[in-house]
Amino acid sequence: MRMRNSVALFFCAALLLGGSACSSDDDNTTADTTDTGETNPDPIEVSSCSSSTGMEKIICLSDAFKTQLTSSQLAAAQRTYTTSEAMKWSNFPEALYGQRVGLDFGSMTSTQIQYAKALLKEIAGTSDNEGWDELQKLLNADEYLKENGGGSDYGAANYYIAFLGTPAATGTFEIQYGGHHVAFANTYTDGVLVGATPSFRGIEPFSAFEWNGETNQPLVQEKDALSAMLTALSSDQLTSAKLASTFSDLVAGPQKDANFPTTPSGVKGGDLSSEQKDLILTAIKTYVEDVEDAEAILTKYTTELDDTYIAYSGTTGLTTTNDYVRIDGPSVWIEYSCQRGVVLSGTHPHSVWRDKLTDYGGN
């Protein structure tokens, strides 16, 4: 049940009657924290965490968010770390999947969601069209679907956030966030990011759309980078990279953990020019840079480029139904699949980034 202003005022009054102060970080922020019941507000600026950096700030923002929750909400959001719960993610709306763990935005006040988004913004990073910017635009896309034929099964109210394990400088925890077309999972051990996958992105509509007066078209940078990677191949290389099968969906999508081919297919990076390898790395970056702490991951994938393969099916434009492309390295696995629209006409992409060694933090 969603708490409204009247409920918040009741708790505040109870604190005052008991002689306690009723205050929060809201008093020291620049965001509008008026609780309108909005499920897609902007993140809040948590001033008490502004001087913190790195893991200290992640812990601070996690704690700030949790202090905004009721005891029952906290029990839903804060869970023990288990790989089985970490694996509970999907590209489906929750009405179809029904197994996500954590606390849904529809059960939160707008202020609580602002605190949740402040944390997600910190760990996803703030590059244009990547990280938090991409996650927010994907939320906007689901709001658009809700208002244009999808109904209440779509929209920001159906997205979940969970702590698997308690955020701390020691031990293991994962911050998990997801809903329709989105899975975000950062796993930390002893204060270090040890896994940022599985990471799922999809969007409908794929064409540019207007939301709250702004143009949105997330994932177009992934499509453009992957298409540029393919079109830079010679005709002979394209022939070698072409897969014999037609792919209507992802090979290693939700609930298909470790479903990687035993033998890679396509063109090997070591057989390509430095310029062509740079285009592979550029495409990889559009996925890896969706997390704030991407440097170590990119360094690993860069050193493995010569042993990384690229392959595709369909056309190199990646906008036609059954267009498909993959990047298959010793560690990195990226897939992009163009599919028919579900709510709207036209095509829309599904895409996944996995790490063969560090999915779920390597657990």
TrEMBL record:
Signal peptide span: 1-23
Region (Disordered): 23-50
Record-linked InterPro entries: DUF3500 (IPR021889)
Record keywords: Signal
Entry-linked Pfam families: DUF3500
PANTHER family referenced in this protein's UniProt entry, alphabetically: DUF3500 DOMAIN-CONTAINING PROTEIN
Protein name from the UniProt record: DUF3500 domain-containing protein
Annotated source species: Chryseolinea soli
